[in-house]
Each structure stands twice: as structure tokens, then as C-alpha cells.
Amino acid sequence: MVVREAVFVDEQKVALENEFDEEDPRCWHWVLYAPGESESEGMQPVGTIRLVPFPQQGEEPRAGGVYFGGELVNLEELGGPTTTTTDHQDEEPHLTLGRLAVLPAYRGRGFARLLISAALEFAQEHPTLFNVSQPSRDLTWKGLVCCHAQVGAMEMWARNGFQVDESLGRWWEEGMEHVGMYKRCEIAR
Description:
This protein is α+β, with helices and mostly antiparallel strands and 189 residues long. It contains five helices and nine strands; from the N terminus they run H-H-E-E-E-E-H-E-H-E-H-E-E-E. It has helices at 2-11, 16-19, 88-91, 111-125, 154-159, and strands spanning 28-35, 43-52, 66-68, 71-72, 95-102, 144-150, 163-164, 170-173, 176-184.
């Protein structure tokens, strides 16, 4: 969690109480270690990512929404609550990759790609871990993975096979503009 705090709280100015949420205890987390700046430091955590299982807490972000601490703060501006949704959560179970962070001194070395690959490989090799038992619906995970990408990181996610879902629009989380991106993974059966 030291990497997330350094990147999201210290660098991107996300409030500490908003960085860690109710999803964290039920997620899978990966931490990437690399040699420290001096030999005496040994291996140091330099990157991290989490995989959120289905169903995710809360609702999918709304286009134009402004969120702080996971709460929509401009509901009136958006015309109030809605009962319709075009999100993938209602269509098909999906996993969500998030909280991808690499310390500034270690960026540009392919570490984000390594973290994304590790999480996706785990999901692909263990697909039944993500199936939800609900007799009225088929909630078998079929390989759909989402990320809520900061607009500045869209190209990096695209290089890893994710595509923007334009139907979701754009929204703001903790002061940063985001888009929904999806990727379909091949899974072991």
C-alpha cells in the first residue's frame, strides 16, 4: 500500500481516506519489487495493481459524474437519480483492474505492463474463482475485464489491449478525468 499512497495520495493529491476503500479486502493485489537505489536498501515495492471481483460495489460511474470517496457529488447537475443503465455490470459479469501505480523513478521500464499481465494471467488461469452463484442468472465470468482509466493513461491501457467504451462517456474521480475501457480475455475452461 506504500506505493499507492506515494502515487495517488502524495503525487496525485487524492485524499488518503478516499484511496483505500471497501473493495480492498476482497480484491487480489499484486506488488512488484525492484532493487532499491542503494545496495543496502534491498528489494523495494515499486508498483502495484488490484483485481476487483464481480460484482463490484456501487454502481458504474455516470457520464459527467464527479466522484469523491466513491460518492457522486453532482447528482442534481446530472438530473437526479437514474433507473436505466448501459453499463456492463447488468450485461455480463466482469472483473475490474484498478489502482495501478508505479513509483515515478521506475516508470518507463514496462512495469505497468508486467503488473497488468500478471493480474490477467491469474484471472485467465483461475476463471471459476470469479463465478457468482445466482440461480436466476448465468453469472459465469467469460473473460470480460474493465478498467476505469485516467484519461492520461488511456494509451498505456490501449497498448495492453483495452478499448474505450464510448457509451460510458467520461467522468471525474478524485479530480481526475476517467473513461471506461474493456478487454476480452481468453480463459482456461
